[in-house]
Specification:
By secondary structure, the protein is mostly beta strands. 8% of the residues lie in helices and 42% in strands. It contains 1 helix and 9 strands; from the N terminus they run E-E-E-H-E-E-E-E-E-E. It has a 5-stranded antiparallel sheet with strand order 3-2-6-5-4, with no helix packed on it. A 4-stranded antiparallel sheet has the order 1-7-8-9, with no helix packed on it.
C-alpha cells in the first residue's frame, strides 16, 4: 500500500503537536515513524515527515483516558502518547482565528487564544 504523497495546499493554517510526549505516525495500521526512536537526526526526521501528505483532520480520539489519537481523512494516524507531568501541555492544536486547544493530564482540555497563555 503506497503512502499518500504531499500535495500543494494552504500551509500552517492548522498546527498540531507536542513539546514533550512520545509520538508515532501510522498509515493503514503500519508504523511509518516513531518520534522517540526512529530518526537519527532532525534532518532525517524532516525528510521523512516532508514525504507524508497529512490530509485533513477526520477524528480526534482520547484513547484509554490519556493518549490522543488523531485520525486523518487519508488513512494516516498520529498517536500522541502521554508520558509527562500532570500540568505540562502534552498535546496542542493551533487553529485559524487565534484559537489554541491544548490538553494536559492535570488540566484536561482547554481552549483559548493562541496569543495569550492558558493557565
Amino acid at each position: 500500500m503506497a503512502l499518500p504523497q504531499p500535495t500543494l495546499r494552504d500551509y500552517r493554517k492548522w498546527e498540531m503537536g507536542t513539546y514533550c510526549c512520545a509520538w508515532r505516525i501510522l498509515y493503514a495500521g503500519s508504523k511509518i515513524l516513531c518520534g522517540s526512536q526512529d530518526p537519527k537526526s532532525i534532518g532525517e526526521l524532516d525528510e521523512t515527515v516532508g514525504k507524508i501528505d497529512f490530509g485533513r483532520f477526520a477524528k480526534i480520539i482520547q484513547d484509554n483516558g490519556l493518549d490522543i489519537l488523531v485520525e486523518l481523512d487519508n488513512g494516516v494516524r498520529i498517536d500522541f502518547l502521554m508520558t509527562v507531568s500532570l500540568n505540562y501541555e502534552c498535546f496542542h492544536i493551533f487553529c485559524p482565528e487565534d484559537v489554541h486547544i491544548r490538553y494536559s493530564i492535570g488540566k484536561s482540555w482547554q481552549v483559548g487564544s493562541s496569543t495569550r497563555s492558558l493557565t
